[in-house]
Amino acid sequence: MPFIKIDEKEFEVAKGITVLQAALANGIEIPHYCFHPVLEVVGSCRMCLVQVEGMPKLQASCNTSIGEVALDKKLDGKYDMVVNTQTDAVKQERKNILEFLLLNHPLDCPVCDQAGECYLQDYTFKYGNAHSRFKEEKRVRPSESLGSNIVINQDRCILCSRCVRFTREISGTNELFVQNRGYHSKVSILKDKPLENLMAGNVADICPVGALLNTDYIHKNRFWNLDTIPSVCQDCSAGCNVDVFSQRDEIFRLTPRENHDVNGYFMCDIGRYGFHRFEEIERVNQPLVRNGKSFDVIDWAEAIQKTADLIEQSNGKTAGIVSPFHTNESNFLLGLMINGMLGMLPAIQAEEITYPSGFRISADRSPNQRGMNNICGGLAEDLSSEIKTQAIRGLYILDDGVDRELDDAWKEILAKMDFLIVQSYAMTDLAKLAHIVLPGLAPYEREGTITNDQDRIQWLRPSLSIKAESKPDWEILMLVNNALNKKAENFTGLDDVIIKMGEQFPNYSGITLFKIATQGIALNGKKM
Amino acid sequence: MATIIKSYEPTFWDKLYFPALLKGLMVTIKHFFRQKVTIQYPDERHIPPDGYRGLHRLNKYPDERIKCVACEMCAAACPSNCISIIPGPSPWDDGKERYPVRFDINLLRCIYCGFCEMACPEGAIELTEIYDFSNYSRDDLVIDKDGLLGVYELTKKQNYYTKKSHSPASLPFKTERT
Fold first, then answer.
1. pTM, 2 dp
2. For the domain that residue A168 is a member of, what is the CATH number?
3. Which of A219, A221, A225 sits opposite B97 (nearest CB)?
4. Which domain holds residue A476?
5. Distance from CA of B123 to the nearest CA of A (A)
6. Is there a contact between B69 and A222 if contact means CB atoms under 8 Å apart?
7. Number of separate helices (H) and strands (E) present in chain A
8. Do residues A154 and A301 both lie within one domain?
9. Cα–Cα distance, A412 to A513 (Å, whole number)
10. Hey, are the CB atoms on B72 and A111 less than 8 Å from each other?
C-alpha cells in the first residue's frame, strides 16, 4: 500500500488509484470538470492540476496514478508521493484555466438553468479571477437540439467531453462526438442519428455546466427554489434511487441519486419523465359510494363502516387483490384484513433493457412486485378461475392506478361481483366499476418500504402533501380491519406496521426506516 | 453630597400672569405668517423627493417587450419573500429565452427596501414614487404582471405626482370596494 501525503494529510491508499480519487476519498477538494468516477479518464479540462514533488511541471491529478517506489527513493524516507494542491503555482494555474474557459462563456447565469448547481460558477467564485481581461467580442453560437429531450447551448459548453464519453461507454449508443478542431470544436450529432436513447436524460445531469439541458425542465424554475427529497423511482422493479425536486406541491424534475448497489449514478428516461402522468388525472378526493350509475359522497366513518359490513356479510367469500404498485405495508395489511384468498391482476410487463455498462431497466414495470410476493405468501396463481371455484362474492382491491388497463375478461368478472371495494387515488376503469371507492394516496404522496427485484428494501419517501380528504393507504386498511375485528391491533404509525410485518416474515424483521435510510438494505445478505 | 434646590419664587411680573400668556401666543402668531407644513390630502398630494421607494413597476423596452427575463434574482434577494415568479420560454425570437409567465408582488409583505432593483440584472424592476395605493382587500394588494406593467405606463414619461393640486391618474389595478 503506497503511503502518500497530500497537503500535510498523510494516508495509505490502494495501489493504482489516481491522485484525484485519493484526494476526493479523503475529503480534499481538487476542482475538476472532465473527471467522472465511472467514465474513462481523458484529462482534457486541466482544472485538476496539482504539484507533485519531484516532477518538474504541474500534473493533471485525474490521470496521475499512485504507485510504490523503492525504499531508498522514498521522499522523506517514508512517502511514495507528496502532492501539494495549494501552492501559488497551482492557484495561479487554476486562475489561468478558468480565464480560458470563460473567454467565450456567456455570463448569463441569471437565465441559465444550471445556475446554483454549476461547477463553472462554483469554481470561478472560489478559485477564479473576479474580473475578466477579455475586451473583445464574445463568440455567439446558436443553441441546437440534440434529440427530443436534450438541447445544447454551444456558448456555455466547456468541451469536457463527459457527455461524449457517456454515450460511448455507459449507454453504448455513440450518438455524440466532438466535431471540428481547436477553436471550432463543438459537441454534435450526426443528422440521421439524434440523441434518442432511454438514458439520454443523464447527459444533462453529468454536464458540469449549463450546456446540456433537459427540455422538460428548461425555464421551469430555479434550483434554489426546489425542495429535494431522496426517494425511489416507481416505474420499474429495478428501483433506481432518485432525488425528487418539488416546489409548492408540484414536482419539477427527478434526478438520479448515487447508489452503487442499485443504479450507480444514472437513471432511465422512463423514470425521469414518468412523474408527468400523475399530473392531470381525475383524482378521487372523498370516499364515494355507488348510487345507481353515479357516486354519492359520504364521510370516512360511514364509508369504513359500510365496507366492514359488506365484508362481514359475505361470510368469508371476500378476496383481496394486492398491488405491486403499493408499498409492502399496504399489501401486508390487506393480507391481515382479508385472512383468506389473495390474488393479483396480471403483471405489467415490458421488454427488459440492459446497457453495456450494466445499467438495467427491468422487464417488470411495477415497483414492488418482489415485495408483494414476499409479503403475501399464498397468492392465487390463476385468480379468475379461483374466483369461480371458491364462489367469491366480493373483492377488496388495492388499485394499481393509472398504469392498469382492464381487459374485457376481467371487466366481466368484476361486473358479476356482489360488491367491489376499490382503494384508489384516481377515477380509473376499476374505480368506475366499484361500489365503494376509498381515496388513497398517489405515487409521490405515499410513504413506506418497497423491495426491488434484487431483494433490496428501500424507503419510498413522499414529496407531495396529502390531497383533500384522502388518507394513507395503510391507515385506511387499518381502520377497516379495526371495524371488522375489535381485537385488531391499532397501529400509530408506519414503524408499527413494519415491526408487525417483521414478526410474520423473518426476512423483514429488525428493519426500521432509520436503518434503511437513503441506501436501502439487501434482504438476502441482510447487511445492516 | 446633598444639594439644596431652592424652589422658584415668582416675581411680580410672574404674578401678573398676562405677560407669559402673550409670550406663548407670540409663538402661535409667528406661525401664521410662515409657510405651511401640512397639506390638504387628498385634494393636494405630497411630491416625494427623487429616490423615494414606493410602488413597484416592471419596465419595457421601447418595442414593448418586457425587460424581465424571470431570473428570480429579485425574489432571491427579497428579505420579505414578497415576489413570486413563474418563468417560461419566451414567445419572442430575440435571443432572450426566458420571460415571466406570472409575476406577483405581495405589497403587504414588501418592506420597500429596494433590494430587488439592485439585484435585477436587466433593470426590469424599479420602485416608483407612488405612495398612496391603499386598497379595500388584501387580495387586491397582490399585484400581477399586468398591474406592474400598467404602473410603468403611468410613470414612464413623467412623475406620477405632477403638481400639488393635481389629482393623479387612477392606478392600473382594482382599487374599488366590492
1. 0.88
2. 3.30.70.20
3. A219
4. 288-348+365-522
5. 13
6. no
7. 15, 25
8. no
9. 41
10. no
Using CB atoms, pick whichever of B76, B88, B98 lies closest to residue A111.
B98
- Report the alpha-carbon distance of residue A172 to residue A454 in Å, rounded: 24
B87 with A219: Cβ contact below 8 A: yes
Same domain, yes or no: A313 and A378: yes
Query: Minimal CA–CA distance to A47: which of A148, A180, A158?
Result: A158
In total, the C-beta contacts within 8 angstroms joining chain A to chain B are 26
A135 and A76 belong to one structural domain: no
Residues A335 and A438 occupy one common structural domain: yes
Mean pLDDT (chain A, rounded): 89
- Measured between CA atoms, the residue of chain B closest to residue A223 is B72
Residue A282 lies in a domain: no
β-strands A212-214, A227-232: how paired?
unpaired
Note the pLDDT tens digit of each residue in A220-255: 999 999 999 999 999 999 999 999 999 989 999 999
pLDDT band at B159 (very low <50, low <70, confident <90, very high): confident
Contact A219 B76 (CB under 8 A): no
Which CATH number do you get for residue A9? 3.10.20.740
Are A76 and A196 part of one and the same domain? no
Domain boundaries, chain B: 56-155
Q: Give me the architecture of the B56-155 domain, per CATH.
A: 2-Layer Sandwich (3.30)
**Ordered DSSP codes for A87-155:** SHHHHHHHHHHHHHHTSS----GGG-TTTTS-HHHHHHHHHS-SS----SPPP---EEE-SSSEEEETT
Q: Classify residue A229: in a domain, yes or no.
A: no
Q: How does pLDDT run across B2-21, given as a tens digit for each residue?
A: 888 888 888 888 888 899 89
Which chain B residue lies closest to A247 (C-alpha atoms)?
B86
Contact A450, A516 (CB under 8 A): no
Question: How many Cβ atoms sit within 10 Å of the Cβ of residue A282?
Answer: 12
Pair (A312, A176) in one structural domain = no
A13 within a domain of the structure (yes/no): yes
Asked if the C-beta of A111 comes within 8 angstroms of chain B's C-beta atoms, the answer is yes
Domain final position from A164, A198, A221: A221
**Is B87–A220 a contact, with Cβ atoms under 8 angstroms apart?**
yes
Instruction: Express as a percent the part of chain A with pLDDT over 70.
Output: 99
Chain B residue numbers touching A110 (CB-CB < 8 A): 69, 71, 73, 121
Per-residue pLDDT reduced to its tens digit, A434-474: 899 999 999 899 999 999 988 899 999 999 999 888 999 99
CB A293 within 8 A of CB A280: no
